[in-house]
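Thought: the user wants the 3D structure for the chain below. I'll pass the sequence to the structure tool as-is, report back what it returns, then summarize two notable features.
Action: structure_tool
Action Input:
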Amino acid sequence: MTGEAVETNELFEHFRFTADPGQTPLRLDKFLFNKLEGTSRSRIQAAANAGNILANSSPVKPNYRVKPGDIVSVVLPHPPRKIELIPENIPLHIVYEDKDVIVVNKFPGLVVHPGYGNYSGTMVNALMYHLKDNPLFQSGDERPGLVHRIDKNTSGLLVVAKNELALNKLASQFFHKTSLRTYNALVWGDMKDDQGTIRGHIGRNPKNRKQMHVFPEGDQGKEAITHYRVLERLGYVNLVECRLETGRTHQIRVHFQYRSHPLFNDPEYGGDQILRGTTFTKYKQFVQNCFKLLPGQALHARTLGFVHPTSGKEMLFEAPLPDGFSDVLNKWRTYIQGRREE
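Observation:
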């Protein structure tokens, strides 16, 4: 699931079992209860009801009868656990919380979940402290409750599940692309069209594994679609709104680089260089001062919509731009206004 989101649309297999040739037909929940240590039948039933347990590659319900030779697998929206997590008392900006979900407005610079180079100090560590009495956050999963994520220096909204049923139902929404996500981005250059769609398969850059790359012919990577519209033209930069139809790693960042409009101050995709404008020293200093206000790319997950996993109510949240991003916008507005009055 995943600019931005990688909120990912991918499901990962955590467990796989092949029923013995002499297997007596047995309810799925009982079959897995006997196979999985430390897992309750209620958790198994919740996962099955949300479509996260497969028999022979097809989703099945808890009362499915496992037969000889059946291949039963458990799939979840995050990879199997690889590292141990520690609760940490890290401030969180919580915009909504109930017994099933919690919506967080992530600060720029905060990593969502532990991984290579970031084993602590993440949003997940903070959630484990905030929800220390919650069984899901005591399970040892590497990404408890997560159904999508955004990059370290991207700010904005994330929804996190607080129980197994909510996790599976939210994961299904993100997988089937029924959730709503829009982003604000500041990009280099003046976009030709007021609105449009960027299409291009995204995969790892074969020359730099830390970067993603657009494969326009679609022979590599995964399909990625970003819809955009220009909100404000500020001379050498544009403020755009992006709506993701897919959720690939670095999707917004790499799609706009592909269109020769990298995100402002994006160090991985060339946006931290002065790509448009004049050669005047005063202008160069102005841009450098803008860069200093941002920890990285100017990208913010502005709105988030989903159907509540238990009430069925449509939920919609909006988070204003963080201070650094809004300060940069105001600087550009003042700069452009000054040039118009010269």
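Final Answer: Structure generated. The first helix runs from residue 28 to 35. Residues 94-341 form a domain with the Pseudouridine synthase fold (CATH 3.30.2350.10).
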